[in-house]
Amino acid sequence: MKTLLTQLSIRDLETTSSELVRNAFALHPDLPAANLIEPIISLADAEFLKQLDRVLRAKHFLHVIRLERSKDRKESREAEWLFPEIREAALALPLRIPVGNGKTVARSDMKFADTGRFLKILDTQLRKHKEQQRAAIRTIRRLWPRSERALRMTLAEVDRTKAKNAGLVD
Questions:
Q1: Same domain, 15 and 73
Q2: Residue 49 sits in which domain range?
């Protein structure tokens, strides 16, 4: 209910703002946009300006809240990975990796065979923005140990093993 009221008030504010701008254009047709601000403000009533301030403050703080939450999510995703090269490559990949026939696996549960399947899917999509994911998969495949046991490990297990071997964790 509150969201609906806010959306209505934003729509009303936009309509009123448009009317104010048109009136200012009519009164001062030769003024550049930067100089029209003062005439527009002088045409607006105090209650309208008060509502506009409240809405703009709310929009600003909602934007800041979204930015902070986004930073927190990024930091928590970075904290999942221990080995620096794997962290950098894994963060370039989506959270769920498509492995064919509409199936996906979680990025951390990806096995070596899944990297090959995902690479084939990426190769069929000749989009430039997919190049970062191709490079990430190639890096992960290069870092993956080649033993029979390691080929059955998940990416998270490979990450822990690499970090332990590098002395990054106990």
A1: yes
A2: 2-77
